[in-house]
Each structure stands twice: as structure tokens, then as C-alpha cells.
């Protein structure tokens, strides 16, 4: 994995400080947002493929509403209108309930702003299953 180091200089109340940041241009695929480079690779795991589908602006576009690990590294602003996608296994021990929520959130909350990804055929059944796999890695 390629690693790039940057040095940022900041002046705060007359104090000169140097902060060294280690930024990785290729985000990991498990447990965070996969990078475009990772998504472009062939033979990705179900978790990686689900993460790629969830973060594809033409498909899931989850980052438009949700915050999750890897967005800062990708230099994207997380969404703030929906709950953060963290500890998903603990929050949704029943996989079927999480899948149903993605398929059509209105089944749990009729006033939900979340698109009915399955009911409106925004995502295929397989894509929803892959996104659930990715969510369980968060």
C-alpha cells in the first residue's frame, strides 16, 4: 500500500506548530468507504462490492445522508440528516430487519426520507444484500 506524508504548518496564537499527518490515498474496503481504486479492481469480496455499491453516487449514495468511516480520507463531507453508520451489527442484530430498512425504510417509519431502494428498484436484490454485508463490517 502506498503511503504519503504531508506536513501542515499552522500558526495559533503566535505559536508555530507542525503536524505530520499520514494520509493513505487508498482507503481500506472493509469497515469504511472503499476507494475508487479498490472498487475498480476485479474479484472484490462481497463486503468490498457492497461498499462500492453503497458509495456509488449513481446507486446507494449513502454518504449523501450518513456519516461513516473513510469519508474524511476521501475528502468528502458526510451527510448529517441520517444516523451515522457505525456499530451496525450491534444496532441491527437481525440482518433481515436491516435489509428491509434498505429495501423500504417507510415500512418502519412512514415519514422516512430514505429512498425505497428496493421498492423503487434503485438497487437490485443482490445489490441490497451486498450493501448489508458491507454495513455489517462497519
Structure write-up:
This protein is 28% helix and 13% strand. The chain contains five helices and two strands. Strand 1 and strand 2 (15-23) form a beta hairpin. It has one domain (26-135): Cytochrome Bc1 Complex, Chain D, domain 2 (Orthogonal Bundle), CATH 1.10.760. The longest helix is centred in the last third of the chain and has 11 residues, at 125-135. It has a two-stranded antiparallel ribbon. The chain is globular. It has helices at residues 36-40, 46-54, 88-91, 95-103, 125-135, and strands at 4-12, 15-23. Helix 2 (46-54) packs across helix 5 (125-135) and helix 4 packs across helix 5 (125-135). Residues 1-27 have low confidence and may be disordered. The protein is of the alpha+beta class. The two termini are 21 Å apart.
Give a short synopsis of this structure.
The chain has 138 residues and is an alpha+beta fold.
Topology, element by element:
Elements: E1 4-12, E2 15-23, H1 36-40, H2 46-54, H3 88-91, H4 95-103, H5 125-135
Antiparallel strand pairs: 1-2
Number of helices: 5
Percent range for β-strand residues: 5-15%
Computed CA radius of gyration, to the nearest angstrom: 17 Å
Number of domains: 1
What is the N-to-C succession of helices and strands?
EEHHHHH
- Largest sheet, spatial ordering of strands: 1-2
Separation, N- and C-terminal Cα atoms: 21 Å
CATH superfamily: Cytochrome c-like domain
Give the CATH class. Mainly Alpha
Arithmetic mean pLDDT? 78
In helices, the fraction of residues equals 25-40%
- Structural class, please? alpha+beta
Any guess at the CATH architecture? Orthogonal Bundle
pLDDT < 50 runs, ≥5 residues: 1-27
CATH topology: Cytochrome Bc1 Complex, Chain D, domain 2
Quick one: biggest sheet? 2 strands, antiparallel
Q: Judging from the principal axes of the Cα atoms, what is the shape?
A: globular
What's the number of extended β-strand segments?
Answer: 2
Amino acid at each position: 500500500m502506498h503511503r504519503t506524508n504531508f506536513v501542515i504548518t499552522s500558526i495559533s496564537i503566535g505559536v508555530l506548530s507542525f503536524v505530520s499527518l499520514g494520509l493513505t490515498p487508498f482507503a481500506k474496503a472493509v469497515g469504511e468507504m472503499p476507494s475508487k481504486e479498490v472498487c475498480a479492481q476485479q474479484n472484490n469480496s462481497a463486503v468490498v462490492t457492497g461498499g462500492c455499491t453503497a458509495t456509488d453516487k449513481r446507486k446507494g449514495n449513502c454518504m449523501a445522508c450518513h456519516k461513516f468511516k473513510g469519508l474524511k480520507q476521501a475528502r468528502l463531507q458526510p451527510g448529517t440528516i441520517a444516523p451515522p453508520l457505525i456499530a451496525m451489527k450491534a444496532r441491527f442484530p437481525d440482518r433481515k430487519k436491516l435489509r428491509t430498512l434498505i429495501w423500504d425504510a417507510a415500512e418502519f417509519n412512514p415519514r422516512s426520507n430514505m429512498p425505497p431502494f428496493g421498492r423503487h428498484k434503485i438497487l437490485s436484490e443482490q445489490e441490497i444484500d451486498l450493501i448489508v454485508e458491507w454495513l455489517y463490517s462497519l
